[in-house]
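Q: Structure tokens for this one, please.
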Amino acid sequence: MSEHGRCERRRQKGSRLLFAGLLLVVAASSVVHQLLPASAADSRRPELVGWVTDALGEPVQNAEVSMYADGMKEPIAVAESQGDGEFALEVPEVPFETLSVDVSRPHFHSYTWSPTPDELELLSQGVTIRLPDITMERRITLGFWVATLTFVGMLALIALEKLHNTMAALLGAAIVLGVSSVGSPFNPNLFILDFEQALQYVDFDVIFLVMGMMIVIGILEATGIFQWAAYQAYRLSRGRAWLLVIILMILTSVASALLDNVTTMLLMTPITLEIALALGINPLALIIPEVLASNIGGISTLIGTPTNILIGSYADIGFADFLINLTPGVVLAQIALTIYVLVVFRRQYREVSGGLSPAMLERLKENGRITQPATLVKAGTVFVLMILLFIFGEQIHLVPAVTAILGAVVMLLVVDVDTQEMLTVVDWTTLMFFMALFMVIGALQEVGLISLIAGGIKQLVGENLTFALLVIIWSGALFSGVIDNIPFTAAMLPVVGYLTRTIPGASSKALFYGLSVGSAMGGNSTLIGSSPNMVTAGISERAGYPISYITFLKVGLPATIITVAIGTIWLLIRF
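A: Here is the predicted structure, written as tokens:
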């Protein structure tokens, strides 16, 4: 090897080490929890302590608690409520005859408390007093309507495909932040949230999990393993279309559970198009069943669908939990879906003559060759270890995001890949979509729309867990078909979280599993229902075989009704 080649190799290795080191730093920072400093043990000053909640009994964070003495305009002490809604206000050593405590926060009516003469006497003696629990009532402001209309507009842009999903989400985030920053100085009621608050709503566990998996999948894809698997599917079917579609659906379903359904369809759609054209069958008769299977198969695991990643991070549901609680229902739904597909496309499958010419078979075989066997062994070993850590890592407090980053780092170190190429593998557009979406949903939480929805559903279902589960599943199935299931799931997480805390028996997190089933299976009903649908449609259209909205609806809607019904029955049995 020339000196130049050795220098270039050392440079690439150094780049990989630097990139891997940065990923490790990011992973470590994502799971570090800052501990609040405890009050000094020898402090003798009295305190006013209390707990702030909203009308639903949920803690109110960052409420400003101000203490005023003898009618002064400036507070003599100020504190903020913490994440659990609690606050502690230290009473300063100043002479006073009267006290009042004001609790205020944007989008809430202010609350004022004044101590009785007896309580004032206790404070003067250095006794800490606990205030009665404070319930702050929501206030509908101009900011409420701006945030609500922005969210509705974002969904409309996504549903009508007027803007790319990421652009629509970024536009929504820009509107709520821009109105808050520019409009609030002129009219305080236009305030929604500031940039620091918006960042608090971004779930970086989701961001790092998705980023790590993108790197892992990018390395595995380069080995040719997916093309090899597709060729083996054809070889096993021996040209029989009905058997081929069954094998392809099983392969897609399993791959969606172990990777994710978006990536799976990115890999499988071009391969399937080539096989279908070689067989002389309409590619849509293979592609549409595949994408339906991918949306269902991904439900089995934490990393299988973007909606599960959101749910798992929010509700602290691990890889093994999804696997145990949802896989049996997913298998039953896949069996029903397979039977349905064989009936719907039976005419197309019968028309296939069966078998390929030797030249075409050789071409498929060549394209389905594993190009980097040594890399596959290394990367495959790391991937298997990652799956084991996903399943058992929770027992050692290893969160999925860290597992994904660790897996990506190890693969980068053991596999000789170019760091620049790996940076292109990461879909930064998707990551930006998630971050902007979290900010817009955070705006809805700030202004109180999420609370209104949660309160309305709670009034509807009362304390009936079965009824609540049915509402969550079927509303998810319905609205995921109208809009993309990712923003719907993100918006519903706080609602389901509230119902889980208030409905007897819901602590099993059954409602979160219901949201998973409803949103993922509901994404099969329309072309815009899920990201895999739109990704697949784009690839198919570029190949000259467009999937129209109506074409997908005719196949997808009945499939959704059948599979969601089976998923519902399983969850009712399970929980």
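A few notes: Confidence is low (pLDDT under 50) at residues 30-43. The radius of gyration is 28 Å.
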